[in-house]
TrEMBL record:
Entry keywords, A to Z: Oxidoreductase
SUPFAM superfamilies named among the record's database cross-references: FAD/NAD(P)-binding domain
Origin superkingdom: Bacteria
The protein's name: FAD-binding oxidoreductase
Keyword Endoplasmic reticulum found: no
Phylogenetic placement of the source organism: Bacteria, Pseudomonadati, Pseudomonadota, Alphaproteobacteria, Hyphomicrobiales
Claim: Oxidoreductase is one of the keywords in the record: yes
Domain FAD dependent oxidoreductase span(s) in chain numbering: 3-391
Length: 412
């Protein structure tokens, strides 16, 4: 019998398993797929130390109008998505008001600022340095006024949270980025962020490290989770597994499982798509085209374009219109080359209405821990919240570390 079962083998689950293992606990990970095959597979691969402030809902009328009218490409929505997520969206809206967003950002910045430090020993031990670039992330602006506003906002982020950046005039940015075929208005270069050329493979490398250190990853369905007496059990291909503690790290699927234990977790599901291109000139560093809400990043599989948020139900069919628009927009900036044929990937950012991951013990079930809801930055934050949770576990009396408690109160 292991001490801990971690449900979910995405970046969050595998990093959590490694963190508990490092503290001397015996750990089993259970997933219905191989490690790193869902949301952690197809993201933009950026370890976002620059993301001090989580994405708030826009509050200004013109942005809301553009979203409502389908003009904006960074956020799209469906009626069924909005209807199913109404309570979560209303709470998200309240938490986006400046005072609350400021308090939330103070916590969030404390997580993102240590993210590269928390990944570093795992990257080294997993021998994954060849996938990592430390060139930062650029945000590209086409319009001089938007660049000016972004430079002022970047300066506020630097002075508030200490995140270093460079504001690059268009000519300087074009000189640094050989792939650009036009000179933009400018770029904000966030220097401390790292990027990964194969996010799914990094999770696999971390899972291999976990196995090499004595851990087991087993195929199984988290829906078989049961509590009996003082322990938890789950059915796997390797037989029924039992442990006194179970960690729910199922990303966007976490609320589904927890409903059967009486928890109603409000979640905002923000779907994103990616596509790959045979572009011949690799990017020096990933960049986001701010006007179109798409990110371009050189990957081992080709140049990856990934999209912003589609507010649709978790099980909605694929509708990659943001990807189509994003491809058109990015084609104006760089030569994309031929599109690589592949099944259409999409994944869902699991966002909680207070923009913070929910990390800590459940309030009503002994031995049930939460670690999910990492939204736009789960690839970044997996090792950080894994480490925080494992540390709190070994510190009796600690409560919810970040995020909403399941009654909906904000723990900020
Ligand atoms: C387009 C896009 C771009 C992004 N870019 C970035 C980025 O650049 N940087 C960043 O930090 N973040 C990024 N993100 C967000 C990031 O990908 C997620 O926050 C992160 O992957 C969530 O990790 P996770 O481990 O919580 O979830 P997942 O990776 O989805 O893992 C959950 C696991 O649970 C398993 N599972 C689900 N249900 C069951 C069940 N019933 N039984 C057993 N197993 C089950 C799944 O198979 C899966 O392996 C992006 C997301 C998208 C969509």
């Amino acid at each position: 019998m292991a001490d801990i079962i971690v449900l979910g083998a995405g970046m969050v689950g595998i990093s959590t398993a490694l963190a508990f293992q490092k503290r001397g606990h015996s750990v089993i990970v259970v997933d219905r797929k191989q490690p790193g095959r869902e949301t952690s597979f197809g993201n933009a691969g950026i370890i976002q130390s620059e993301a001090a402030e989580p994405y708030a809902l826009p509050l200004d009328i013109s942005t809301l109008f553009k979203m409502a009218a389908g003009i904006s490409n960074d956020v799209v929505w469906s009626v069924s998505g909005l209807m199913r997520m109404t309570p979560a969206l209303l709470s998200y809206f309240r938490n986006s008001l400046p005072g609350r967003h400021r308090r939330i950002s103070q916590i969030y910045a404390g997580l993102t600022c240590r993210a590269t430090q928390d990944h570093a020993p795992l990257i080294e031990a997993a021998n994954a340095q060849n996938m990592i670039s430390k060139e930062g992330l650029c945000v590209l602006y086409r319009d001089p006024r938007a660049f000016e506003e972004a430079a002022a906002a970047a300066e506020r982020i630097r002075s508030t949270y200490g995140v270093p950046y460079r504001a690059l005039a268009g000519v300087d940015y074009a000189a640094e980025e050989p792939a650009l075929k036009v000179t933009p208005a400018g770029g904000i270069h966030w220097e401390p962020s790292w990027s990964c050329a194969n996010p799914g493979a990094l999770v696999e490398a971390y899972a291999d490290l976990f196995r090499a250190r004595g851990g087991e990853v087993l195929e199984g369905d988290a829906a078989t989770l049961k509590q009996a007496g003082g322990s938890w059990s789950v059915s796997t291909a390797g037989g029924t597994q039992q442990a006194s503690t179970v960690v729910v790290a199922l990303g966007p699927w976490s609320p589904q499982l927890l409903r059967s234990f009486g928890y109603r977790i409000p979640m905002v599901y923000k779907r994103g798509y990616h596509g790959h291109y045979e572009s011949r000139t690799p990017l020096r560093r990933p960049f986001m085209d701010a006007a179109n809400g798409v990110v371009a990043a050189s990957m081992q599989t080709g140049l990856r374009i990934s999209t912003g948020a589609a507010l649709v139900p978790l099980d909605a069919p694929a509708e990659p219109k943001q990807l189509v628009r994003g491809r058109q927009a990015l084609g104006e900036l760089i030569d994309l080359g031929r599109q690589i044929e592949e099944p259409q990937w999409f994944g869902t950012r699991p966002c909680l209405p207070d923009m913070l991951p929910l990390v800590g013990p459940s309030p009503r079930h002994k031995g049930l821990l939460f670690n999910f809801g990492h939204g736009h930055q789960g690839f970044t934050l997996g090792p950080t919240t894994g480490d925080l949770l494992a540390e709190a576990f070994d510190t009796p009396g600690s409560g919810v570390l970040t995020g909403l408690d399941p009654t909906g109160r904000i723990a900020v």
